[in-house]
Amino acid sequence: MNDTAELAPQVRSILRAARERGVDAEPISVSPRSLAGAFEAAEAAGRVPVIAEVKPTSPTTDGERDDDPVELAEGMVAGGAAALSVLTEPAHFGGSTESLSRIRAAVDVPVLRKDFLVRESQLDAVEADVVLLIARFVGDDLERLHEAARERGFQVLVEVHDGDELARALDAGAAYVGVNNRDLARLEVDLETFERVAPAVPDDVTLVAESGVTSPTDVRRMREAGADGLLVGSAIMAGDVTERTAELVNA
Questions:
Q1: What value does the mean pLDDT take over residues 82-106?
Q2: What are the sequence ranges of the domains in the chain?
Q3: Residue 64: its pLDDT value, please?
Q4: Residue 123: is its pLDDT beyond 50?
Q5: Lowest mean pLDDT among 5-14, 25-34, 180-189
Q6: According to CATH, what is the number of the domain 9-18+31-249?
Q7: What pTM, to 2 d.p., does this model score?
Q8: How far is the C-alpha of 85 from the C-alpha of 232, rounded, in Å?
Q9: Which positions are annotated as active-site residues?
Q10: For 148, how many CA atoms within 13 A lie in the half-sphere containing its CB?
Q11: Alpha carbon 231 to chain centroid distance?
Q12: Average model confidence (pLDDT) for the chain?
């Protein structure tokens, strides 16, 4: 998208930094661990599929965690996380591609690269199993970037917030769709966002609820609304990550 006036100031800052961040690397090729397979394995074991997020800090939350990211990730997996999300955005979230590489080498679950990618070259910064493309950030480039990511072997989670963005994601061929309950304009979280968008998602698309899940009650609500899995960051990072993950996956 080119017009960012309606975005919250924090989000405009994130997007501005993303547009300025360059990557000088050769195109990479990855052999990904299956996210859908990880969700199925969690279900078979009687657990809710949760993507637990290693997020050192965030513009929308207070405080930060300075624990070793690998120890946090291993704790989340010990708690039953089906997959991990790792922030690689440095300026606003304290993330790094190095942390993602270390985490991916240490665990055997799929790892999502959580970043704000707006150019094809940024896909080549680090190997991951899944990359995130935010429909609202990439605008008309969604289909091209989705194809470029798939050519490299990535699975792609396309983040949407409303029906129009969902339509663009499906037109681009998205097999994984995440519905963000956080409004990027007001930064308000409303679980009804997922409930409004989810009914239009085809059954053959893996559907993830993002943001705002803080309790087992929230987990059950999103699952009843059709979530195949949930991406949870702040609620897990706010406490003992193993205990918090286990509480949610066993909801």
A1: 91
A2: 9-18+31-249
A3: 66
A4: yes
A5: 5-14
A6: 3.20.20.70
A7: 0.92
A8: 9
A9: 53, 55, 114, 159, 180, 210-211
A10: 17
A11: 6
A12: 91
